[in-house]
Design brief:
Helix content is about 60%, strand content about 0%. The protein is mostly helical and about 70 residues long.
């Protein structure tokens, strides 16, 4: 970590949280949702993001399929 406010250091993290809010958080009504339900939905989103979400930078593949194409996963 560098000094406070050094945006290049925080870019990847800020980008992830921005996408998380746009794709998961903002389009739902969270009234009546318990913290346990929220944590479950957040966990499902993070798993989807890391495994199944299509990324242009990976040639239109999900991260899991991209790793498989490189022979990193069986």
């Amino acid at each position: 970590m560098s000094k406070k406010g050094c945006s290049p250091d925080n870019a990847a993290c800020e980008g992830f949280f921005g996408r998380l809010k746009n794709e998961m958080f903002y389009d739902q009504s969270w009234t009546g949702v318990t913290i346990e339900q929220f944590i479950k939905q957040l966990d499902e989103y993070i798993r989807w993001y890391a495994q199944d979400r299509i990324k242009i930078s990976l040639g239109g593949m999900s991260p899991l399929n991209y790793r498989r194409s490189l022979g990193l996963l069986s």
